[in-house]
């Protein structure tokens, strides 16, 4: 064991904060473990230190894939950049009299008290920033925010999938399990004090997602696609189709566990990406080819589209009416609904509205998360 | 790298397991920090074998708990030996008062130890493998939290049983479902990926010393190209080894269309996947990869 100097401990804490900002699940225990490996001298070897922190800080594959780059950025380039920035700031601040001492990344800086307060204020807007990003329309994500937005989306979608998973089945009803009742009775001297019951298995949920990937949906389809991939983990029988001018059955491309590979696969195989919109024709094709297999009173159909139909509106109306008749619930998610002043007055939407069970927006992370309730009740 | 880690890699190699530096560091931390290690990865990448090899390396026992849907406390932790309890009641019901009798039959002598309890009551530290935890129910996962953080188990009639010696715990998951954050936070984490081409050739050569280098290279190239294709079940290292073994037994020097058609069953386990490969020329899968 060797004593870890204060400066290095502070660097580790900074790295923990840096990772936490990037949605790593880190608490005091992980920081303590990091101190522990530093005190054992593992930090003297860069690779050993990197792999050790990787094992401690990463909790999921998504973290694991990003960690090495983050480690390099923080402990080399990032650190140097930050140091340079700080040095420049110090030069400017030297002129001012009212100063305070701040230690950042192991370097002592004299910063005026007023400035310190300002810096602190900037640090505390983290929660507000998350909220801002949650409310940002997918089509208006700033290039500078892209990375943070991606990380936030990943974390929120992960949390959502965990919430879905936690809904437990009740085991207090159902038929009496005689075998277990007697078995439990043995410990009570043969008295059957408690009745065991067999858990009735819940019927598997069946959901069909039909995503519009036409040009007008370009800015939304990527996030909606990722949202569906998260739901795939929860719904055991999820069928997924994309359409623009033609319909593609995407479910066979979702076999792999790796989200990135799935996205690559879809990108490679869906030919009609970013082309025109023929909702009616695509839904008619869905009905004729897949309708008998994927439509029943156990199915919920979710159509994700802006409803800007360029084809035959009558065909669209008829297709939606038939789908509604054949499935349990029909939901239409429209990213445009979140736009200020939006009115569902387009011919396509007006015609299908009477057949929908729900018509919701899907333009930002917040609106997607609000859909949980509808999908949980499925 | 650290000398202890180098030694670990060498010793695992002696036991036919090729560790890379990152995985060796995780095993090293498991030994030194005493935290459970969660291994995730596709089936057949060597997660379970790692636990077995660790037990061999330490010269200790491996206690394995295979998880499945419906796994409960009585199968994984403990169960009362009801027959013995009933016998005791019958033998002593005349001589002993009820209160004492009750105390007697709920003692450690009447407990049937299941893998988790066995692992914390062993005389020397053992390796506890909780295999395919993603197959178990969430209720069981929650029960494990106490064991993984404090190395203790609560039995209502007996109280809390604390570990005499801390087992080295390895959990594996194939990611068929997402594990809870609470469980993940109690563990060190390592994603076990498929090995690199050179790494896999080393594994095959180590396990099958008689194999020709050219054949080993062809097997690995073929398998790596298969993994890139969109198959229902991409082959793991175990499948590579099985295939290499089969080809070796058949005295093959090269992979041909004919040989693929007759032996591909040891690599692919799904009808569609077999058709996908047999409908194509073998040369498509022998294209050199980076």
TrEMBL record, chain A:
The chain crosses the membrane at residues 207-225. Gene3D superfamilies: von Willebrand factor, type A domain (3.40.50.410). Keywords: Membrane, Transmembrane, Transmembrane helix. CDD domains: vWFA. PANTHER family: BLL5662 PROTEIN, BLL5662 PROTEIN-RELATED. This is VWA domain-containing protein. It comes from Robertkochia marina.
Automatic annotation (TrEMBL), chain B:
SMART domains: AAA. One of its GO terms (molecular function) is ATP binding. Transmembrane segments: none annotated. Gene3D superfamilies: P-loop containing nucleotide triphosphate hydrolases. Pfam families: AAA. Residues 33-202 form the AAA+ ATPase domain. PANTHER family: MAGNESIUM-CHELATASE SUBUNIT CHLD, MOXR FAMILY PROTEIN. This is MoxR family ATPase. It comes from Robertkochia marina.
